[in-house]
Each structure stands twice: as structure tokens, then as C-alpha cells.
């Protein structure tokens, strides 16, 4: 299929990321042709992405493909695609909780979900994992309103709050079946509460966990060690060979500095995130609550029922999470050795429409 002259596109900031949003029907149905077109739209491969929409960083080289869902529990399907910057790569191996913040407004703007007067819930199936979430969008007078007083770290100004509630995932919270594993001589906790993530105490890697992301990225010995841990963790988590993928993420943990629960530095997987992804934060939060995890000796957990604040290089992200460390059978009886279960997760994010129109891909 030849590429169209122009493609309908909405560029949005979702959380602390930015990406191009498309209706599935506006892109080629063949995944290979779709990916080839998106690479040309985003300007990949090129370290500056000078000839496309990409912003020369993984956090701004993202795509959301949204379609009406056939799932009775969802209104729309959301496929996230992570595009490389200097490499012609397109990955669907992970979700993106930041771009997820823009899916609800986009679905209403494109008429996939009818706006209610006040607030509109949009039920979303995350195609990458099959997990479900509900995003509640401000729609006064049945129109999406992006203005409001909600502020999130890493984004200037304020915007309308978008409350995202995640349904309980279908997979295990602890993919290895253990609260702790030893990889490359380092204690880790492998957790998946929406994003496969490996938790590591920063002190076990001979860093403080308070360094600037650029400083951590420049530490070649640390980078090599982290990649060894990531590759073995991927195998233990059932992800196979992860050398060419972006999951699992790695989150270094240190005691909080600003009254939160924990300070983080997250690798995605090679670059160090200037903040933290929504689903990555959800996994960190759940992992901290697991008895015996590596975070238990580092984090300062709030009282039961209080929001858990994850600190990161440019601020913080608040997560509502509940982990049942001793789940019982349906009849209430105790189950010996039952694995911890994440019972619910919710987060407040914001999004903003930057432009809506036609994007013209670089010629093939």
C-alpha cells in the first residue's frame, strides 16, 4: 500500500510525554506498512528527527493508535508504539501510561465516545497488554476542556485533571514468583503492575540515587551492569530475550528527599527518565508495598489508605495503590503461599491538544 499524501493526526502532550495520536482507520492495516509510514512521519532514524514530528528523545518519539473497541468492557482500543530516535525501530512490547492520559480526550474529540455534560468516562483497552483502564475527562457543555488547576511535575502550568483508574491486571504482580531475586550479585524485585519493572536499591549499585539523569547515563560501568541485570530479569520474568526491547524498565530506589515515599531514577531502558512513567510508577508503588521487597528497607511508606508519592528527578507523582499481601480464597479462607495481588491503582494526570490537522510524511 502506498503512503497517502497526508495523514490526519493530533499531536498531544500526555502526562510528561508527547506523541502523535492517530485513528486506526487512518493508518495502513498492515503492521509493516504502518510502522514504515510512522517512522517517516516521526523523522526516524535521525538523532535530531529534524524531518519529522519526533523531538529527538524517546519521551517525544511516541505514537498512540486509537480505534473503537470490540471488547464489551471497553469503549476504545489503544495501541502504543515506541519509535526509535536514531534507529529505525518500532516497538509494541510495552504500554505507555503517559500517552494513555491523552487517549480519553482524543477519543471524545474524534467522536469515538459521546461526551457527557460535565465529565466523561472513557473505558480503554490497552492493546499492548490487554489490560483495562478508565480515564475520566472534563467535558463541560459536552466539549473537551483542557484548562484547569491540576499540576503535574515535569509539565509547566496547569490543566484539567484526568483521573485514570486501572483495573486489576491479569498477570501476576510478581512475575518471578518471589519478592526478591539475586541477579549479578544484586538484590532486585521484579514487579508488573502495568509495566514490567525491576526495582533496585541505588546503594546496591554504588550510587546515591540522587544523581542527575545525565550523570547516571554517563556512567558506563553502571550502564553495563544495569543491562546485565535487565537481560537476566527479562528472562526470569518470562519476557525472553529483551536486548532489542524496551522492557523491563529499571528503577533505582533511594530514601525520599521531599516528604514522599521513595526517590527514583528510572532507565527506559538505556536513557534515564527525567521523571517517571505512569505505569512504571504504578509498578514501583505496588512493589514497595510487597512484603520482603527491596524497597522495604529504602522507602518510607505512608499510613494505610494514604496516597503514595513517588519522587523523581523533576518532582513527584502520586499513586493510589492497594496490595493484598495475603490474598484469601473466594470463601475467605487463608491460602498458604498465595502471591501478593494489586487490588487497584489510580492516578491523576493531565493532557493537552497541541495541534490537530494533517501531517505529511517524509518521502519513502
TrEMBL record:
**Keyword Endoplasmic reticulum listed:** no
Name assigned to this protein: 4-oxalomesaconate tautomerase
* UniProt-recorded Gene Ontology molecular function terms: isomerase activity
- What does the record give as EC number? 5.3.2.8
Q: Any idea which UniProt keywords this protein has?
A: Isomerase
Q: Which family does it belong to?
A: Belongs to the PrpF family.
Query: Does the keyword Isomerase feature in the UniProt annotation?
Result: yes
InterPro entries this protein is in?
A: OMA_tautomer-like, PrpF-like
Amino acid at each position: 500500500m502506498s503512503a497517502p499524501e497526508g495523514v490526519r493526526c493530533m499531536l498531544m502532550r500526555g502526562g510528561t510525554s508527547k506523541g502523535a495520536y492517530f485513528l486506526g482507520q487512518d493508518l495502513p492495516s498492515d503492521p509493516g506498512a504502518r510502522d514504515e509510514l510512522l517512522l517517516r512521519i516521526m523523522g526516524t532514524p535521525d538523532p535530531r528527527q529534524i524531518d519529522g514530528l519526533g523531538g529527538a528523545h524517546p519521551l517525544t518519539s511516541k505514537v498512540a493508535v486509537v480505534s473503537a473497541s470490540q471488547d464489551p468492557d471497553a469503549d476504545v482500543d489503544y495501541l502504543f508504539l515506541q519509535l526509535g530516535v536514531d534507529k529505525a525501530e518500532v516497538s509494541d512490547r510495552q504500554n505507555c501510561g503517559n500517552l494513555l492520559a491523552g487517549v480519553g480526550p482524543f477519543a471524545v474529540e474524534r467522536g469515538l465516545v459521546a461526551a457527557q455534560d460535565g465529565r466523561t468516562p472513557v473505558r480503554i483497552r490497552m492493546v499492548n497488554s490487554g489490560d483495562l483502564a478508565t480515564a475520566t475527562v472534563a467535558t463541560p457543555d459536552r466539549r473537551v476542556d483542557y484548562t484547569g488547576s491540576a499540576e503535574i511535575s515535569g509539565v509547566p502550568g496547569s490543566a484539567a485533571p484526568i483521573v485514570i483508574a486501572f483495573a486489576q491486571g491479569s498477570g501476576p504482580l510478581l512475575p518471578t514468583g518471589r519478592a526478591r531475586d539475586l541477579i549479578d550479585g544484586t538484590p532486585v524485585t521484579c514487579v508488573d503492575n502495568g509495566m514490567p519493572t525491576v526495582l533496585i536499591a541505588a546503594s546496591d549499585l554504588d550510587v546515591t540515587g540522587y544523581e542527575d539523569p545525565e550523570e547516571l547515563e554517563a556512567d558506563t560501568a553502571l550502564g553495563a551492569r544495569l543491562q546485565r541485570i535487565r537481560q537476566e530479569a527479562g528472562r526470569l520474568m518470562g519476557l525472553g530475550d529483551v536486548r532489542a526491547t524496551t522492557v523491563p524498565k529499571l528503577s533505582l530506589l533511594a530514601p525520599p528527599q521531599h516528604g514522599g515515599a521513595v526517590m527514583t531514577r528510572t532507565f527506559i531502558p538505556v536513557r534515564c527518565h527525567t521523571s517517571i512513567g505512569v505505569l512504571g510508577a504504578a509498578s514501583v508503588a505496588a512493589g514497595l508495598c510487597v512484603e520482603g521487597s527491596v524497597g522495604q528497607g529504602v522507602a518510607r511508606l505512608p499510613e494505610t489508605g494514604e496516597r503514595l508519592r513517588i519522587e523523581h528527578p523533576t518532582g513527584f507523582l502520586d499513586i493510589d495503590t492497594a496490595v493484598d499481601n495475603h490474598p484469601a480464597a473466594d470463601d475467605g479462607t487463608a491460602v498458604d503461599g498465595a502471591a501478593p495481588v494489586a487490588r487497584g491503582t489510580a492516578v491523576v494526570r493531565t493532557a493537552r491538544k497541541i495541534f490537530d490537522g494533517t501531517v505529511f510524511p517524509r518521502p519513502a
